[in-house]
Amino acid sequence: MARYRGRFAPSPTGPLHAGSLVAALASWLDARANGGQWLVRIEDVDGPRCPPGMDEVILGQLAALGLVPDEPPVWQSRRGDLYQAALDRLIASGHAYGCACTRAEIAAAMGPRAKHGELVYPGTCRHGTNGRPVRAWRLRVEGRVDWQDRRLGTQSQDLAKEVGDFVLKRADGLWAYQLAVVVDDAEQGITDVVRGEDLADNTPRQIALQRALGLLTPRYLHTPLVLAADGHKLSKQNGAAAIDLSDPIARVRDAATELGIPANGNSTAVGDLLAELAPRWKPALTS
């Protein structure tokens, strides 16, 4: 088995908040508990949503919290050639095809049935665009994907019915998250993906892409979400506050408590606290 390599992959649409710190700490702890490496990838593939300089803000937050990657970070915005090569392979193998449909046309064909942030695609262009110009590229999906999550257990999704042929390259020319993350995980040799439970729904699509590209599938572990006072997921979209770095030790203790491993309170340096937490991580995985 390959040596453990994990990653934390924030989108620089805003600073890290308490929920994203929990995900970062979980991925770091899992790597350390397994004697592995921990990487950071800036997922800025959707450039228009990423304020200038926010990537450096996030890297600075991580450093202040003692979460320093074992290799230099990488940026998705600088990896377009890798994504294009993967798309070319998918097109050549018949797994990907050009799509001429607009969102309005898909909605008219399917009705307002939203899944996973987009309409379930009805397969209109699977056999050609009838001379219309290609707007986007899609992956041809078939049937159900079953997978095993280290925390959630056995999972299953019927991609054809619940998602449809999903986008790999958007009509605006931007790369879709699903393709970018699969290519990046493979190119960086990621063996274990540890991330928030809200991203579990992406996993079947990513596994389908891995199979189409002939790539290995990492192990997955999806951690509990941090909830706001109204019971909804704490997120940048609902105005979650940036991490208060005036007391990094307190912030790491808070995140560890959310993960079910409260610290003993004796550490006076963030590095010492992290060293205390790492050996206690594995038992928390069984909860």
Task: List the main descriptive attributes of the protein structure presented here.
3-stranded antiparallel β-sheet; 287 residues; alpha/beta; Glutamyl-Q tRNA(Asp) synthetase; elongated
Topology:
Layout: E1 5-8, H1 18-33, E2 37-42, H2 54-64, E3 74-75, H3 80-92, E4 96-99, H4 103-110, E5 114-115, E6 118-119, E7 136-139, E8 144-149, E9 153-158, H5 159-162, E10 167-169, H6 177-187, E11 192-196, H7 203-213, E12 219-223, H8 248-258, H9 270-277, H10 281-284
Parallel strand pairs: 1-2, 2-3, 11-12
Antiparallel strand pairs: 4-7, 5-6, 7-10, 8-9
Helix pairs in contact: 1-8, 3-6, 6-7, 8-9
Structural notes for this entry:
The chain has 287 residues and is of the alpha/beta class. The chain is 34% helix and 17% strand. The protein has 10 helices and 12 strands. The strands form 5 sheets. Strands 1-2-3 form a 3-stranded parallel β-sheet. It has a 3-stranded antiparallel β-sheet with strand order 4-7-10. The chain has a two-stranded antiparallel ribbon with strand order 5-6. The longest helix has 16 residues, at 18-33.
Strand content: 15-25%
Helix content: 25-40%
Low-confidence stretches: none
Terminus-to-terminus distance: 25 Å
Q: Write down the Rg.
A: 20 Å
Determine the structural class based on helices, strands and strand pairing. alpha/beta
Largest sheet: 3 strands, parallel
Question: With helices defined by DSSP (H or I, 4 residues minimum), what is the helix count?
Answer: 10
- The run of helices and strands is EHEHEHEHEEEEEHEHEHEHHH
In the sheet with the most strands, the strands line up as: 1-2-3
| Mean residue pLDDT | 91
How many beta strands in the DSSP annotation? 12
Q: In one word, what is the shape?
A: elongated
